[in-house]
Hints:
There is one protein chain. By secondary structure, the protein is mostly helical. The protein has a single domain (17-98), classed as Arc Repressor Mutant, subunit A (Orthogonal Bundle). It is built from four helices and no strands. Helix 1 (17-41) runs antiparallel to helix 2 (46-65), helix 2 (46-65) crosses helix 3 and helix 3 crosses helix 4 (81-91). The longest helix is centred in the N-terminal third of the chain and has 25 residues, at 17-41.
Amino acid sequence: MEQKDNEYGNPQGYRDEKEDIGTMSSLETNITQLGNLLLGDKSGHLYRMVMEKVEKPLFEHILARTAGNQLRAAKILGINRNTMRSKIKKLGIQIEKYRLGHG
Length: 103
């Protein structure tokens, strides 16, 4: 019987914990650096500015990992499907390029 890949892209649902820890550490470092860069310029808008820089690439990465499946992407992100669709529209993400057979 053929196993179906899960949302992490592998059949068993296994995620490499060392890779996850390294990725999270790198992400934390990058967010801290971004925050420090933005803090000097526009105090009072830091949260919005960081989210503008982080949110779109995060959504694009998850959509690529799920072949454009918005329901699976929303589940991975822990958000509602309608919120996912709203964010895709707001962020100007072209969903077609992530769907299988396109792009």
